[in-house]
Amino acid sequence: MSELRATLVQCDLRWEDPDANCEMLEGLLGDLGAADTDLIVLPEMFATGFTMNSREMAEPMAHSTTVAWLKRQATSRGCVVSGSVAIEEGGSCYNRLIWARPDGSITHYDKRHLFRMAGEHERYGAGDERVIVELKGFRLLLSVCYDLRFPVWMRQQPRDDAHFEYDVIVCVANWPAPRRQPWRTLLEARAIENLAYVIGVNRVGEDAKGLPYAGDSMLLDFKGEPRLDRPRDQAFLHTVTLERQPLDDFRDKFPAWRDADDFEVFL
């Protein structure tokens, strides 16, 4: 049976201090590695917090110390390590989710939906393609925070029961406590409508503006039922095993996807 061990890392973040955050995370992760997990998921902008100071804090992609740190962690631990970073490339800044593999290679996804209520759309460029990666027999759709509110962008269209686009949604976030109920509800909805596991990793603590974050990091199964749902406001590191066979069995038993509507996304 195909299994994927995913470690969710819910933590507080030091404001605009990549060195301090990377040092904190190394201590939190300890000796966690391939014997324990296949995937480590960190929050959105784990190196800086959700900063709109993009011109000063975004790191050049070709020389990013945070991306290099992610690659070192993946290589030394023998597992994939993923989280989003403020990145500059080609004259634009991006909220970029990095997928760092143990072999030193990376894939990235640029956040498509930018949170205009914080002015993110004025300081970062929007991504223009969905990104799906593979790990341990699972296909994972990458997403960042505000993307979660836009089901069309995340909706999969299976061609048949053997060709689902993905099996897991990964969503990293800095989702504030005042909107914790939409976070929880949207994670459940995305799991149910896409017949997929959902990994949602959020931060805790307060940012430099005093905005609180409740965490509520969750791992939901393909029926929207929580496999991991930890108390709010607490930092934690927890590993959950996703099983392939129950997912395939449920998709066969409850083929709601056969009645879905075809559509296209125009960018």
Describe this structure as you would to a colleague.
It is a single chain. By secondary structure, this protein is α/β, with parallel strands linked by helices. The protein has a single domain (3-255), classed as Nitrilase/N-carbamoyl-D-aminoacid amidohydrolase (4-Layer Sandwich). It has seven helices and 15 strands. The strands form three sheets. Strands 1, 2, 3, 4, 5, 6 and 15 form a seven-stranded mixed β-sheet that branches. The radius of gyration is 17 Å and the shape is globular. The termini are far apart. The mean pLDDT is 96.
What's this, in brief?
The chain is of the alpha/beta class. The chain has seven helices and 15 strands.
The CATH H-level superfamily is: Carbon-nitrogen hydrolase
Contiguous runs where pLDDT drops below 50 for at least 5 residues: none
Distance between the termini: 38 Å
CATH topology: Nitrilase/N-carbamoyl-D-aminoacid amidohydrolase
